[in-house]
Hints:
By secondary structure, the protein is an all-alpha fold.
Amino acid sequence: MTASSSTATRQGQADRPPRVFWVWLTGLTWTMLGAQVLSFGMVWAATAYSAALAGLVLAVVIVPRVVLSLLGGSVADRLGPARVMIISDALMAIIMAVLALILVGQDPGPVLLVIAAGAMGIADAFYLPSSAAIPKFLVPPGALPRAMAARQLATNLTAFAGPVLGGLVISRAGFSLSFAVGAAGFFGMLGILLTMRRHLPTRSAQPSGSNLVEQAREGIRVVSTVPLLRTIVGLTGAFAAFIVPAAPLLIPLLARARGWDVAIAGTAAGTYAAGMATVAVAVMWRHGSQRAGLAAAGGMTLAGAGVAAAALAPSPTILLALTFIAGLGTGLFATHVGPLFISAVPPEYMARAQSVLILIQSLPLLLANPAIGLITEITTIHFVVTIWGAGAIGAGLTALASTALRGARRPT
């Protein structure tokens, strides 16, 4: 083998996620699918009682993420993200298996639904920072864009397939099986983590700080003082506020106001996901843009333009085209901002930095959805969609004022 071919081989290996990452991602995908089935089942069961209960179930999942995510990141940096994932998977698998047995032959009541949602939310507060930190230790920097694109694709696919499978499971076998499927997802990931635990990081480094609260503050300090991380966190918060509500709330409200049926609203959500998946596949194939910071800001701006233009869509066909464009922008943002964030965080702060990002993603959701409903009641959904799209455009353009983001290059 010549020196040039040897160098090319090493470069190719550095640009591709290793086998251990794909094994880990397979387990994570299985877990996410089970969680999606379970989440759909819980919300559907709650709607049998009232819309208020359905909203409460969703809120009970999100609130623990907001309250406990910083603590979860500190624990993950202290114990190691793999250990926290193993503990969370084991506890959730046991809880959901017990609930599946309790529900054999009967539907879940309001109290049980709230308890299950709370358990999922608490587990997420510890599990999400840990799972988000793992790629930092499994994947070479040059392979991060492909790895993050693959994870986004897995998230998109499970978000699409989970409710479909959940509806099938509940209609054929009842709610007990949906909890059993959720338990199977957690048991599956637990088995994979235990099998490959010697390949996973136990602890990145001894975290600074004498206690968990001080360590959480250290994580906030790192994110807030590094210019690139600070800009990414701010842009991600704007993304959560202005873009995340588009498919689940803004588009359905817009379709109903136009007199289009539920099939149109559902298809629009599907084309949005298809746009994200298209970009994820492209990045897995071609690595993504070298100017990753500009691509992330441009993706945010493109997504906002698609949402804002949807307010004026004269027909369902135009609406579908615009939601696809919004999905392309979302995919462009997510596949480029993720690797930049991971590569810029010191290893010993990885889970804590991810917990800050999760907090910034969760807080706007608690405010944006009620605000959309309230403002729509006062004005019109067309006005709200326009304003929300314009907000995303403004955030994307404002982010370009950051020299750190403009100059940020794809990790190598």
